[in-house]
C-alpha cells in the first residue's frame, strides 16, 4: 500500500500558497453610485409607488429613501413637468416602533405630508384591528382603496373600492386588492365579520373593477394590490390575478417584499414569459423598507408604460419639512425606549431567509447563510425568543406547568448585531403588540401544527415554528399533501401528519401522541393565525397578559442578567433538523447518518420515485461509478475496456482501468459485489489517494470466526478495511467476506471511508 498521505498534504498546502499569489487585489473602494437624475418627463404621467415600508420612514442614506425622500421625489418630478400620482401598496403602519408605537397614526401623518394620493390595505394594516384602521382612514388625506375586503353581513366594501384620477386629461383608474391571507396573517378576532375572497372569487372581483373603471372612461387601469409572489400565496398571487383578469395595465404589488426583478424571475419560472408582463399586465414592486421607490412613466403619445426603481443609494435628497416631522417623532420614540438595557455577544439572526440584513441596534450590515432565516430554519434569535416566551409563561403560570414554546418566525422582524440593546430594539423584534399565551394540545395535535407550519419548507413561510423545549425533524423530500382546508383560512391541514415531520422530544421527554402538553406561544398563533388552524379548532387558549416584547425584556434582564452570551446563543441549539431524505429513510434507523452523508456528498443517489432502497443490491459497476464521481468525473485518457461501450458505467470502468484500479480489458457482467471484492476496491482506491495503511498488529482480524473464508486475492484489502474501521465484523464476529451487501451497508462503508479522505472530499 502507498504511504504518501503526508506528501500529498504538503503538496496541497504548497499549491494553495502558490495560488494565493495570483489572486487579484480587490479595489480599495467600490465604485461610487451615481446620483439619480430626473429624466425628461415633461408632459408625461409619473406614478411613484411604495410598498411594505414597515416603519422605515426615516431617511437613512444608502438604506432608506424615507418619507422625506419620497416627498422630495414627488416635488422633483413635478418640477420637471410631470403630473405625479403617489401610491402605496400597503403594510405602512406596522413595523418599526417609529410607526407601530402609536398604532400607525404617525405613518399616516408622514404619508399625508409626503403627498400620497391613495393606498391599499396590507395585512399588517389590520394588526391593530379594523376599528383602528377606520380611525386612521379618517386621519388620512388620501383614500384607502380595497375592493375585496367586505363585511359579511351586507357584502359591502369596508373602504372605497376604486377611484379615477384625472392627470392632465388622462384618466387613471385605480382599484385596491388585499391578500386573502389577511384572515390568518392578522388577528382574525380584531376584524370580526370581515370577508376576503380568494382565487376565482378574487379574480371575479378584480375583473368587475376593471370593467367598472373602463365603463367610467379610465384610460389606464392600475391595480394597487397587496398580494405578492410567495409560494405560500399560490392562487392568490399578483401573477395569478394578472393571468386570469383582462384589462389591468399596471399591477403595483406588495406583501412578499419582492423587487420587480424578482417578480420577473417568478413569471419566468412559471413559464409565462421573460419580462414582468403577464397577459398584458405590467407587474412592479419595490422590495421593502423604502430601499427603493418605484417609478412608472406613462407616455400619452404612444400609451407606453416604462418602469424602474430608484434606489436609496442613488437618491439622497429630502424634503426638509417632512424630514423634520419624521425625525422629531423618531427622537421622541428613542427618548422613550432607547436607553440601553442589555448587550449581545452574538449577531442574532432576524432575517427572513438569510443573506445580508441591516441590524436594528447598530445600523450595520450583518450576513447570515442563505436559506437560514426565521421563515426557513432554526435561528439563534428564534431560540432566544422562544426561550423567553417559555420562561415568561412558566413564571406566570408556575414552574412545571408549561412544557414547551412555539412562536411563528414571521413574527420576528429585526436582526440584532453584537453590541448594546435597548427596549426599542426588542420592541422592533416583536412589533405587533401580541401577548404571550398558552394552549393545551395533544401530541398528535402538536405534530399537526408543526407539519402545517412547515408546509412549504425549505421555501420561506411566515408560520415557520421557532421552538423551545421541542426537538423535531422536517424531511423536505416528502411532499406536503393537503388535507382539509382550515375554516376561514387559505391553508390546509396535512393529510397525513407525521409523514413529513417527526417529533423527538417535548419538554425533555420522548414525544407522546396522546399526552396533553401545555404550549406557550403568542395570542396570534393560539387563535389560529398563519397555519395554526389546529390551535383554533382546539380552542381554550389562555392569555398570559405579557406582551411579547416585554417577555424578551424580562428574560434578558432577569434571567440573562443583561447579557445575551455567545456561549448560549452564538449558534443555534439544534432543536430543528431539516433534511432532504428519500421516503424510505427514517431518522431513527441505524443507517440514517450514512445515507444522509452519501446523499449530501453526491456519492450515491436515490433509485427513483423518491426512494433510496436501502436493502437493494450493490453491483460492481455501482462501486466504480461512485469512485469516479468522487474524482469529479475526469476525462478518460483511454478506453481500454472493450465490453462496456454504451453502458451507463462505461466512463467509470475505463477511468478505473486507466488508474490501475481495475485490471483487465473486459469487465464482464455487472454482478452483485461481495464484501471481500468491495474491500479490495476500497483499499486500492485508498492507495490511489495516498492514504496510508492503518497502524495495527495485523493479527486481530484472525479472531473473526470466518477469517479463513477470505479469498487470498482479497486478504490485503479486507485487512486494510478492517483495521481502518471501514468494514468490521458483525455482532457475532463474522466478516462474511463472500456475502453480498446492500445499499445501506455500502453507505455506511462510504461514511467510514470518508473519514480518511482529504478534507475537501470528506467535508
UniProtKB/TrEMBL annotation:
A Gene Ontology BP annotation from the UniProt entry: nucleotide catabolic process
Keywords linked to the UniProt accession: Hydrolase, Nucleotide-binding, Repeat, Signal
Repeat as UniProt keyword: yes
The organism's place on the tree of life at top rank: Bacteria
Pfam families per the UniProt record, alphabetical: 5_nucleotid_C (PF02872), Metallophos (PF00149), SLH (PF00395)
Signal peptide: 1-27
GO MF term set: hydrolase activity; nucleotide binding
Domain SLH: 578-635, 636-696, 701-763
The keyword Mitochondrion appears for this protein: no
Transmembrane segments annotated in the record for this chain: none
Annotated family: Belongs to the 5'-nucleotidase family.
This protein's name: 5'-nucleotidase C-terminal domain-containing protein
